[in-house]
Amino acid sequence: MNKTSFLLFLVFFFTLSTSLLAQVMVSGTVNDESDEPLVGANILLKPSNQFGVTDRSGNFQIDEVNSGEYIIVVSYLGLKTSTETITVGTENISLTFSLEKDLLNLQNVVVTGNFDPRVQLESSTAVTTLSSKDLKKVFSRGTADVLQAIPGTFTDPSAGEVFTKVYSRGISASAEDDLGWYYVSLQEDGLPVSLVQHSYYTPELFHRLDLTTDKVEGIRGGSAAITALNAPGGIYNFISKGISNDFAGEVQVQGGLQGESNPFYRADLVFSGPLRNNWFYSAGGHYRRDEGARNTDFTFSKGGQAKFNLTKVNDKGYFKFYGKILDDFTNRWTGVAATNWNDPQAAFGQDFNTTSLLMPAFSANIPDGRRLSEGAINNFDPSQGVHAQDRAFGVDLLQSLGNGWSVRNNLKFSNKRANWQTSISNNFVGLDDFLVSALSRDFATLFGGDFSAFGNLVFRDAQTGNEIAQINNFGALGIFQGDPPSFDYLTDGRLPNDAIMGTATWLKDNTAKEWMNQLTFRKKSENHDFNFGLAGGFSNSEMFTQGSFAYVTYEPNPRMLRVTVENPGAPVLELSDENGVSNYGGLFYINSRAKVSQIAAFANDRWKIAEKFHLDLGLRYETINHDGSNDRFAPFAQDGGVDGDATTIYDNGVLAPTGEQDEFDYNYSYLSHSIGLNYKFQEDAALFARFTGGNKAPELSYYYNNFSNVPVNQKGEVQKINQFEMGLKWNLSNFSFTTTAFWSQLRNIGVGSFEFDGATSTVFYTPIQLNSSRTIGLEWESAYALTTDLRLTFNGALQNPIATDWTIYDAAGSVDTADDSIVDYSDNVLPFNPKVMFNLGTEYQKGNFDAFLRWQFMGEREGNIANAFQLPSYNIFNGGLGYSINKNLSANLIVTNLFNSAGLANFFGANSFGANANGVTSDFIQNNPDASFVVVPVLPRGSLLKLSYTF
């Protein structure tokens, strides 16, 4: 071959190889129907997984695209996703997209409840998406408050940001007030916020909503059983903002009033942009100060969080490092007294909208029962509430491996602490009740014949030192001789309502170090989308609980009481310390620890049977191990108590460990399965159905609460959950709706009650009963655009929740089992599940002005399994106005509970110390028609002004 031929060959080879391996740029513009540029629209190239994001001018750019055929997917929440096939050759490509309105986001890609990203219309589950625009129209007083907008989801946010309940479709029986997220998974970016739950330790403690959240995806039941760790009841996934090609962000300041003009202040910030070499960053967070929706003498909530992520994009995927630092104080609202069983009205001068009945702020040093020999103390200040801290860091990796294969690994480590310092219970205790004196010390002294805590009691205001009242309460002991209890005032002073509050200091110190990971391999072929992998989580958890009695006035704005016994001819005895705290560490003591491991293997195939017909088949095998121990405890035995002073009897009953421990080490293994169908019979309409057999393993509360000072002699029961759903999704140009009929069955529900034995001052849990329930219902979600400016929305659920087999252990108010019985409530209505709930709203937007009004209706709910008391239905109206001052600056006014509804969200039973909801039967109401009881009202009106500046 001569030189000329050789050079021609090289030129030909180079030209051929360049054409085969050409790398070009794909760019373009994305607008809405009004030709306004869309900022933050996502552009994805399949199958390479290369992606871009539009800038402030609606432009995008994807570099280094190899030659070949691609599907380009353009999505923007609230608008229909656009899909187009393109062929990449040797020249750059420029495209223009105009996206139409998508009223229910049915054309947007969802990731929650699916192993592969999927257009919502093509998903075989009931999924709801809340966009960042939706989230900005909420006066958020907690995570549960936000989720009220998701149809079929029952939320009880009446306690505030924490101590809330969230569940769906009647899967609710073990979702107690202090464990309200029992069946569902609260997630951030696809991983649980917390791996474990137990009393006063639930995931919303470590979650706050702010501008760093881009959207929320929620599914009820269904595929949650095979896509989440031990959470078959649903997934609520808060997804963070992604990358930006240009530096951009938003600053938001908020100020408002709640209740009786209690102020609220908050500042949010989020910003993002590019770095060098295809690195991108996003960061933000918030800080707030909230005086509370009801009246207290301390700041109810304060603190905030910071979040960030760093993302490296390559032509086959991405690598992301992310983190969160949360440091936050909040509290929770307790119940309010009411009378009139048929039409509850606030009692004892209290008010459903403003009364809190929380102890006022003070600072006490209470001996730490775990380390009495060291002189250790626990500082207690009820103004702290719960101090939640979370340090979470993770790595998320997605890479295409070629030939239809890809891998994703999401790993997170977190170090959590929740330190509770608040009050528990706030019941009426009349001055003629022997508990007024008896709760101040170890009951063994009383039943041993020591009545020194009775007689002439002097009550002083703990803050001012001024005397309020003197009584003689020897008559309270008459109950033990069959006489009516009594007391006498010795001076003109009176205590409000002739009572004190039955309350206790509630100190809980909970820590957990957690590691969780989900590894997913995906193989996509012409007719199959197969996903398989492993999910795991490990938690090292410790929990300490200590409770002391406290003397507090029973009135709307409680005061601490310093109490002494001043009997003639006897030394003065101090029933309380100078703060009003009594019976140091003598009411509650739990010191436990556990190591929890959860490992799951899963596989799912989405099989394309025909062009518009897909079948989902999924399996998940999960094994959970709980390995831990509980301390045995007993009253500290020393004459004169901890300080050795016989006259300070408030420290005579401190509970301390005996040195013995009750260990537990149990495994729970089970197989969950799910099969789903999706038939897209039109381009914008689809039918779907799914059947799932799921499982729920016990949480740590099973060991901590049910085995106090006794051996953990048996493992808990795995609850069995069967669910079927069938629905229709339809997306028209001006009307969109989804409707889902469902059937759910829950079996092996372990039910035990918290009881108080007044005769021995013993707190105990009754033996567990295994029960079952069934719920049939219909959910819907719809949106109708009356004009281009006016839209109506309507979503909700109709359901029939039944306790098919249900028994309650009746301890007859004492720890003695001789008079115990089992009561059968089978076929009663399942409590706290409304038969009707819905949200009806209207939204208007014209030019720079927008407005909305929403009506939330909550139907009547049974207050307990006996169906003896019904929580009435209630209505809440929320509204708002917004105005864009210029391109960057906007203002919004939001009002929640516009008409200050006094609806009742929860029921705690009779207004007596240690009572619970199930203690109220029809016979009890008939025999006590004028008795007071405890309810939890919805939060009162709040108004909020937001100023937002985007850049």
Describe the structure.
The structure is a single chain. This protein is mainly beta and 951 residues long. It has two domains: 3-100, Sandwich (Immunoglobulin-like), CATH 2.60.40; 143-425 and 505-950, Maltoporin, Chain A (Beta Barrel), CATH 2.40.170. Helices cover 5% and strands 54% of the residues. It contains eight helices and 57 strands. It has a 22-stranded antiparallel barrel. A five-stranded mixed beta sheet has the order 10-15-16-13-14. The longest helix is centred in the first third of the chain and has 18 residues, at 3-20. The chain is elongated, with a radius of gyration of 31 Å.
CATH topology grouping of the largest domain: Maltoporin, Chain A
Under CATH, the homologous superfamily of the largest domain reads TonB-dependent receptor, beta-barrel domain
- The CATH C-level name of the largest domain is Mainly Beta
Low-confidence stretches: 7-21
The end-to-end span amounts to 64 Å
User: Beta-strand level of the residues, as a percent range?
Assistant: over 45%
Please tally the helical runs, counting DSSP H or I stretches of 4 or more residues.
Answer: 8
- Would you identify the CATH architecture of the largest domain? Beta Barrel
Whole-number tally of structural domains: 2
| Structure summary, number of beta strands | 57
Summing up helix and strand content along with how strands pair, one would put the structural category as: mainly beta
Q: Could you tell me the radius of gyration in angstroms?
A: 31 Å
Helix content: under 10%
Looking at the structure, what is the overall shape?
elongated
Biggest beta sheet summary: 22 strands, antiparallel, barrel
- Mean pLDDT value: 92
Pfam family, one: Plug
Family: Belongs to the TonB-dependent receptor family.
Subcellular location: Cell outer membrane
Protein name: TonB-dependent receptor
